[in-house]
Design a protein that fits this description.
The chain is mainly β. It has 1 helix and 14 strands, in the order H-E-E-E-E-E-E-E-E-E-E-E-E-E-E.
Length: 202
């Protein structure tokens, strides 16, 4: 009788261990989840330029597309055997509007959108000192890049043109060297946006 009870106990223990092992293996399979795909867009240092970051598992093929607010395809790039990467996008020439990036692979599709307000016109201010015969030009521009300064007389004839770096956004001019009753300063940034202001010479 005692020997029979021992055999029954051993068989029950073996069945329990087998069931526990199978359940543990099933738990492992249940918790093996696929890593997500993440798409983010962040502004770069330069106005109008954005950095796109994609993070996800390595896939055979991934297509990255850029659309405007009307659904027009602006850019289309294809990648193979890639997971995470970074790309710069320059929206300066695209203009203000709503833009959407779409990343599509065998794992699914992720999107990221932003509203771009565009590059503002450069700011220009003229300060004339008639007694000292000096004219001070003060500039400010969101691009913080070289600006083109052009000076025209009252007949719109070009008197002078120069390129001004971001470090020299204050310029001085001798009023005695400028001809005519007034002159107009036109300042243009690299995106083509411009501003102008006139000053009376006498």
């Amino acid at each position: 009788m005692l020997s029979f009870m021992k055999r029954m106990f051993v068989m029950a223990l073996v069945c329990f261990l087998g069931i526990h092992h199978a359940t543990h293996a099933q738990d492992k399979t249940t918790h093996a989840i696929q890593l997500p795909q993440v798409l983010t867009v962040q502004p770069a240092e330069k106005v109008g330029v954005y950095n796109l970051f994609f993070n996800g598992p390595v896939v055979d093929k991934l297509i990255l597309s850029l659309y405007d607010s009307d659904g027009n395809l602006l850019s289309n790039k294809s990648f193979r055997d890639m997971g995470s990467f970074e790309l710069p996008y320059n929206l300066r020439n695209a203009g203000a509007g709503h833009y959407t990036w779409v990343a599509k692979s065998s794992l699914g599709t992720v999107e990221q959108s932003l509203t771009y307000t565009g590059v503002p016109n450069p700011e220009i201010r003229l300060v004339a000192n008639q007694e000292a015969k000096k004219l001070k030009l003060i500039l400010d521009d969101a691009t913080q890049e070289p600006l083109t300064v052009s000076i025209f007389d009252e007949r719109q004839r070009l008197l002078h043109t120069q390129t001004v770096s971001a470090e020299d956004y204050e310029q001085y001019y001798n009023l005695e060297q400028l001809n005519g009753s007034y002159v107009t300063f036109v300042v243009t940034n690299p995106t083509g946006k411009s501003s102008k202001e006139s000053v009376v010479l006498r």
